[in-house]
């Protein structure tokens, strides 16, 4: 079966570096119903996701074991 996908080079919207949008990544996007190409390279995507998690779910404050309850 011939693939309708070909490797492409995209530009990251964060760092403005080129990154590969591989055939496997395109298939992954298509299987999940994504209709737009990724905007960020993998490194910037991971930083973005972490910042979103940190913003919405801050780390719990450690309890000081010497504080009386």
From TrEMBL:
UniProt xrefs under Pfam families: zf_Tbcl (PF13451)
InterPro entries according to UniProt: Multihaem_cyt_sf (IPR036280), Zn-bnd_dom_prob (IPR025306)
Disordered: annotated segments: 48-69
Annotated Probable zinc-binding domain residues: 9-51
Record protein name field: Probable zinc-binding domain-containing protein
Organism the protein comes from: candidate division GN15 bacterium
